[in-house]
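Thread: quick sanity check before group meeting

JM: Hey all, I'm pulling together slides for Thursday and realized we never actually wrote out the predicted structure for the chain we discussed last week. Dropping the sequence here so it's in one place. If anyone has concerns about the input, flag it before I start.
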Amino acid sequence: MIDDFLLKEDLPNIDLLFGQLWEISVDGMRLIDEDGKILLVNDSFCKIFQMEKDKLLGKPFSIVYKRDEQEPALEAYRRDIRNNKIKTLFERENTLWNGRKAWFEFSNSFLTLPDGKKITLSVIKEISERKKSEIELRESESKFKMLFNSANDAVFVTQLSNEKSYGDFIEVNEVACVRLGYTKEEFLQLSPSAIVSPKNMPEFNLNMERLLKEGHVIYDVVHKAKDKKLIPVEINSHLFLYNDKPTVLSIARDITERKQTEERLKRTSKLLRELATHLQSVREEERTMIAQEIHDELGQVLTALKIHISLLANKLNTNQAPLKEKINSLSGMIDASVESVQKISSKLRPGILDELGLIAAIEWQAEEFEKLTNIKCSLVLPKQEIELEKNKSTAIFRIFQEALTNIARHSEANKVMVSFMNHQSNIYLEIQDNGKGISQDQIKDFKSLGIHGMEERAMVFGGEVYIEGFAGKGTTVKVEIPFNELKNGH
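JM (edit): ok, ran it. Output follows.
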């Protein structure tokens, strides 16, 4: 009795509370009977559907939709009521009476009145923005998957963990599956280390460390397919957070063709270098032979001619002065010819290079350069001869000659400083002038054949030529060639 009394006493309060909740609800609320007529709506419902209460009450609930949607919606509701199949929670897109399209979420509750009539309470939320975001997300995911799988390169997504050094694959594209011969399901059971050639693991580990520090790395590695086939690839990896976990997106480009091209270029380059070495060797041999023949043959002829003319001059009488003068003139011409022969022979192949070695040849060439150009040439040379193979000595000497020739032709210098030394495993030659300075454009110019010739001579022996110019201050040529010890060596 007490409970019944309290319940009856509280009914006005409950009605008041329900009324307040009905009106302050931000969601639309609607009561309809089993025929679909509106019994009651709250202000939020009117606001959502942009209609006044007096135009809604007593009307079919479908009045808020556009005309061609009204009857189908009403008939579907009545049919579901008869069959007790009303959905409790669902989403639907409708076009409203004013032409606006919108998505709604319906939450239905069903009440049976004492007289047996049925009413439906619907809580309605407009979810257009949410659905728009969901649709955009689905479209974005669809586009991403399309791009992901239509990429020409293999794409791998790996999620790192504390338990595994390399993490696990969480996504791969179709190219990766086709290239390496694994199904997607098989890939998702693998770690990245499973597809890296064992020989490349140390390099792979170093690049993983770099990735964790820098967030982005590009490197070459060799992938191992399921059938053991080795595929050289270029990896472009980015580190990012996905679901609060460090994740790696790696794009692997097959560079088999590039590697094959590089190998062909290396072989071609090696062949051309060997050919250049052979040609230089042949040219030096020809120069040596020509210089020797000129010196021996022509020198001997001129010497014999000089002796015969001298003997002839001694037989002339004192009254044959004019003839004596002509013979003396001829003798002078022969001396000049002998000197020219010696100079030509020296230019073709300085005998001093073969007889006394590279250091003496550098000293001799510097003296000749100074005499010819009046440019002061200072030398810093080792006290003892550096034992080098003949071709290497010749290459260094020819580079030195070419550098001096360029100074004489282009530098406008009045001073040259030359240093030559061997240190540890390299030979170093430096020629520095105080002229106007060469520009970078001149150094790179294809027409600068002398410079390219110096570079090629050094390259044949695994060396390099560095040229640096400073406007108004001069040019420095640095030559660095690996030194192979001979005999006692240095």
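AS: nice. The first strand starts at residue 28 and ends at 33. The chain has a mean pLDDT of 83.
JM: adding both to the slides.
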